Amino acid sequence: MARVPLLEAADLPEEYRYLFTENNVGDAHIFRAMANAPELMRWYMRYSTRLWDVLPEREREIVILATARALEHAYEWHQHVRLGRAAGVTDAEITAITDGDLAALDDREGALVVYARGVALGAPRDAD
């Protein structure tokens, strides 16, 4: 049982209903729970849409996994290990993100992990 109500588009004020229809959130509980704070959901959708638009799926999942690991977000990690594998992230690469030994990743992907961790922890660096 959910700790917060899992809302439907019809439960939202009219000006926020588009968040369900335009973003194709389906039945994902995270979005249905987030709908309890529709303004936050609106800003999150803006941010995540940019992430989806800019990075290829595999790189996006690597960034999400690196961020989830850095912030110790078990729920996000659990969800995106599965999604990452579906996007082609290997178990060796997932282990590399977990352990911080980025040798299993190519240079670009390793740089994405380092940068994502830095942003998540409040200390991004341009070069290492």
Automatic annotation (TrEMBL):
Coiled coil: none annotated. Residues 38-99 form the Carboxymuconolactone decarboxylase-like domain. Pfam families: CMD. This is Carboxymuconolactone decarboxylase family protein.
